[in-house]
Design a protein that fits this description.
It catalyses: L-aspartate + 2-oxoglutarate = oxaloacetate + L-glutamate. The chain is α/β, with parallel strands linked by helices and 387 residues long. Helix content is 43%, strand content 13%. The protein has helices spanning 15-28, 47-58, 71-81, 94-105, 121-128, 148-154, 177-188, 212-215, 247-260, 266-277, 281-302, 323-329, 334-345, 369-386, and strands at residues 34-35, 88-91, 111-116, 132-137, 159-165, 194-198, 223-228, 241-244, 317-318, 347-348, 350-351, 361-364. It binds pyridoxal-5'-phosphate. Pyridoxal-5'-phosphate is lined by residues 39, 93-95, 119, 165, 169, 198, 200, 228, 230, 236, 241.
């Protein structure tokens, strides 16, 4: 019979995708389901970006691109990041940047420290690359942030990477320059550790954002910055992300990429170039729209008994503590609660366990106001009736 390779034996399709698919099935059965499960802006891709893609296709930019990215796009990303093009790789989404980095560097059993809550794919990508995720719980009382002491306590001789995500999916936490400095001081004492700073929500910030590299320039020769157009420019389907890091690492990641995709879609790269070099006013407009939604969602969640929702500083997720609901409603776990909410009220949200921090749930607010209003009202009614 069929047998999975051991490197993926423990992996499942992401719980986020599973929930979104279950919501779609219920909807196809005629149920009225509102899903807040997916981390995808509801805005359209900007028109000038779509037009650039069309023009690129008509101009014959339809051949295999260079493995590490088109010269034009790498140069543009290098200019924005104040590095040379050799320090840039363009991949099929930020997700592939992460996978390239892990496959290019991890030996079996190498450890990767990830503060929880973390984006679901971090642990799975590390596992797929035969590394060991080292999950460090960062509770709500600590702003969901990694402290220097917790970092220090989890370092071993086998630690290969620290994965840091600011602004964070799912918590919205943004590290201040002082907080980054404090972590950098620990890392300076452990030169065997590399830093993967995932800054894909850079432009979705409601407090000032500071890049890890800008705050810790002395660690640049072991820092990989990950970014992309999916979130800020509403380009999730175009599948373009990039990594900025030391040339040797980038070259090794290119070796992996060359055998997996041969490089990212040439037309999507032309579109990305237009996104990065065209007018940037849309970033402010979308940030303001998200901030208004954030305020509405946090207010509505905190009005539901048993739910305690801190204000996220960035990204587009609320990550409330739902332990009060679990206790009062007799739910066995956050997953039990989320399953009930979908079946009973037709609302899809993702249990905290998918992010390595149970007792919470993630609700994306990258949805329209009518959807948010209707969904939150329904969620409130269902929870209030149960507890
Ligand atoms: N990093 C984080 C923290 C994310 O939330 C996501 C998408 O959900 C990604 C990376 C991957 O983005 P992309 O669409 O560029 O693969």
């Amino acid at each position: 019979g069929f047998k999975r390779a051991s490197r993926i034996a423990s992996l499942e399709i992401s719980e986020i995708v599973q929930l979104a698919e279950r919501a779609a099935v219920l909807r196809a059965e005629g149920r009225d389901v509102i899903s807040f499960a997916t981390g995808e802006p509801d805005f359209p891709t900007p028109l000038h970006v779509v037009e650039a893609a069309h023009a690129a296709a008509l101009a014959g930019k339809t051949r295999y691109p260079a493995t590490l990215g088109t010269a034009e796009l790498r140069a543009a990303i290098a200019a924005i990041n104040d590095v040379t093009a050799k320090e840039v790789i363009v991949s099929t989404g930020a997700k592939q940047v992460l996978a390239n980095a892990m496959l290019a560097t991890l030996e079996p059993g190498d450890e990767v420290i990830m503060p929880a809550p973390y984006w679901t794919s971090y642990s799975d990508i590390v596992s797929m690359a035969e590394g060991s995720p080292v999950v460090v719980a960062c509770p709500m009382a600590e702003g969901f942030k990694l402290s220097p002491a917790a970092l220090e306590a989890n370092i071993t001789p086998r630690t290969r990477w620290l994965m840091l995500n600011s602004p964070s999916n799912p918590s919205g936490a943004i590290y201040s320059p002082e907080e980054i400095r404090a972590l950098a001081d620990v890392l300076a004492r452990h030169p065997h550790i590399w830093i993967l700073a995932d800054e894909i929500y850079e432009h979705l910030n409601f407090v000032p954002f500071h890049s890890f590299k800008a705050c810790a320039p002395e660690l640049a020769e072991r820092t990989l910055i990950v970014n992309g157009v999916s979130k800020a420019y509403s380009m999730t389907g175009w599948r373009i992300g990039w990594g900025v890091g030391p040339a040797e690492l980038i070259k090794a990641m290119g070796t992996v990429q060359g055998q997996i995709t041969s490089g990212a879609c040439s037309i999507a790269q032309a579109a990305t170039l237009a996104a990065l070099t065209g007018g940037q006013a849309l970033l402010d407009e979308r940030r303001s729209a998200m901030r208004a939604r954030r305020d509405k969602v946090v207010r509505a969640l905190n009005a539901i008994p048993g739910i305690d929702c801190p204000v996220p500083d960035g990204a587009f997720y609320a990550f409330p503590n739902v332990e009060g609901v679990l206790k009062a409603g007799g739910f066995a776990s956050d997953a039990d609660f989320c399953g009930w909410l979908l079946d009973k009220a037709g609302i899809a949200i993702v249990p905290g366990r998918a992010f390595g921090l149970p007792g919470h749930a993630r609700l994306s607010f990258a949805y329209s106001d009518p959807e948010l209003d209707a969904g939150l009202a329904r969620m409130s009614a269902a929870v209030t009736a149960r507890i």
